[in-house]
TrEMBL record:
The keyword Hydrolase does not apply. Signal peptide: none annotated. This is DNA polymerase III subunit delta'. The keyword rRNA-binding does not apply. It comes from the Bacteria. It catalyses: DNA(n) + a 2'-deoxyribonucleoside 5'-triphosphate = DNA(n+1) + diphosphate. It comes from Luteolibacter arcticus. Residues 263-332 form the DNA polymerase III delta subunit C-terminal domain. SUPFAM superfamilies: P-loop containing nucleoside triphosphate hydrolases (SSF52540). It is an enzyme of class 2 (transferase). Its EC number is 2.7.7.7.
Length: 339
C-alpha cells in the first residue's frame, strides 16, 4: 500500500503523539514524489525550533495557515544530519556513515531528538550498508533515521527488514535529466518533419548518444568505487575478492544502463501516447510543454499511422530485451517508428 505524503506525515505524527514512533523509516517512491519534503516535515515535527513558520490550523482571520517547509538541507545542523552521495563514485561511502553514527551517539538533552536522513540510500556502498546495520538495529535513545530512495530494491534485505517501509504515491518525472533531453529532440523532430529517414536517424543518434554518455558515467563510477573500496581495505583482501568485486560492480553498471534505457523508452512511449491523446481529444498530457508540436503531429497523421508508430516503439523496446545487436535494433526501430 502506498501513501500520499500528507497521509504518511499524519501517520507518523499520530505514532509520535502516542509515544510509539519507530526509530527507522524507509521512505520510497519515484523522484519528485515528495520524499525530501516529507522528511523535512518530520524534522520540524521533532525539532519545533526549526519550524520557521506556522503550519496547520487557522489565522486570526479564519484562513488556513499554510505550512512553511524549508529545503531539507536547510534543516541540517548539530542534531540533524543529512547524508548524500558525494564521492566521485556517486556513492555514499563508509566514512560518511561513520560520521553520521558518531553524531548520533553524542550525548544530548533529555528532550532532544537526533535525526539522520540518508538521501538516495540505495547509493550506499556495500561497506557503508554493513557498517550501518548495527545502528539500525540498536539506535541510541530518541533517534530517528530516515532512508530516502527511489530504488528500495537496491538496498540489502537486512537493511530493509530493520525499517518501517513507507512507499509514497507519485509518478516519476519523465522530463527530468536525460528524459528532458529526449523530449527536446522529439519536439525538434516534429518541427523538422517526422516521416523522413534523416529525421528518424537523427532521433536515433540522440537516443544512442544519451545512453552512451550514461553508460560511460556508470562505468567510471564503478571503477572509482572499486578504487575507494580497495584503498579503504588497504589491500587487506584475500583470494579473488578484487576480481569478484570488479565483476559485481560491472554488473551493477550494466544494470544502471539498462534501467536508463528503459526510462528513455518510457519517455518515447509516453510522448507518443500524448500524440494519440491529442488525436482522440483526450485530456491530461504527460508533456504539456510539448503540446504545440504534439498537436501538429496529431493533426498531420491519421490514427492508423500513429498507432503503427506507437507499436513500432514497443516492438523496438521488446527487441532490445532479447539478444539483438543494440545499435542495429535501434536503427531499424527508429526508422519504423519515425520515418
Amino acid at each position: 500500500m502506498s501513501f500520499s505524503p500528507d497521509h504518511a506525515y499524519e501517520l507518523v505524527k499520530a505514532a509520535h503523539e502516542r509515544g510509539r514512533l519507530a526509530h527507522a523509516f524507509l521512505i520510497s517512491g519515484p523522484r519528485g514524489c515528495g520524499k525530501e519534503r516529507l522528511a523535512a516535515r518530520l524534522v520540524k515535527l521533532l525539532e519545533p525550533a526549526k519550524a520557521g513558520g506556522g503550519g496547520g490550523g487557522f489565522d486570526l482571520f479564519g484562513e488556513p495557515v499554510v505550512e512553511e517547509v524549508p529545503p531539507l538541507d536547510d534543516l541540517a545542523g548539530e542534531w540533524v544530519r543529512v547524508v548524500r552521495p558525494q564521492s566521485k563514485s556517486r556513492r555514499i561511502v563508509v566514512d560518511a556513515i561513520r560520521e553520521l553514527e558518531k553524531s548520533l551517539y553524542v550525548s544530548s538533552g533529555p528532550n532532544r531528538w537526533k535525526i539522520g536522513v540518508i538521501c538516495d540510500a540505495d547509493r550506499m556502498a556495500a561497506a557503508a550498508e554493513n557498517a550501518f546495520l548495527k545502528t539500525l538495529e540498536e539506535p541510541p535513545p530518541r533517534t530517528l533515521l530516515m532512508l530516502l530512495t527511489a530504488n528500495p530494491g537496491g538496498l540489502l534485505p537486512t537493511v530493509l527488514s530493520r525499517c518501517v517501509r513507507m512507499p509514497l504515491l507519485g509518478k516519476a518525472d519523465l522530463s527530468e535529466g536525460a528524459g528532458g533531453e529526449l523530449v527536446i529532440a522529439l519536439d525538434r523532430a516534429v518541427r523538422a518533419g517526422i516521416g523522413s529517414p534523416s529525421v528518424a536517424l537523427t532521433l536515433k543518434s540522440v537516443f544512442a548518444g544519451i545512453l552512451e554518455g550514461r553508460k560511460a558515467e556508470a562505468v567510471a563510477a564503478a571503477e572509482e568505487l572499486l578504487k575507494e573500496e580497495e584503498k579503504a581495505l588497504n589491500k587487506g583482501f584475500e583470494g579473488d575478492w578484487l576480481k569478484r568485486r570488479e565483476e559485481e560492480l560491472k554488473a551493477a553498471a550494466e544494470s544502471e544502463y539498462i534501467e536508463e534505457r528503459s526510462r528513455l523508452f518510457e519517455v518515447l512511449q509516453s510522448w507518443m501516447a500524448d500524440v494519440l491523446r491529442c488525436k482522440t481529444g483526450a485530456a491530461g498530457l504527460e508533456f504539456p510543454n510539448s503540446a504545440a508540436g504534439i498537436s501538429a503531429l496529431a493533426q498531420a497523421e491519421d490514427l492508423g499511422r500513429l498507432l503503427h508508430r506507437m507499436d513500432a516503439v514497443g516492438e523496438m523496446r521488446a527487441n532490445l530485451d532479447t539478444n539483438a545487436q543494440e545499435q542495429l535494433a535501434l536503427e531499424v526501430g527508429f526508422l519504423k517508428a519515425f520515418a
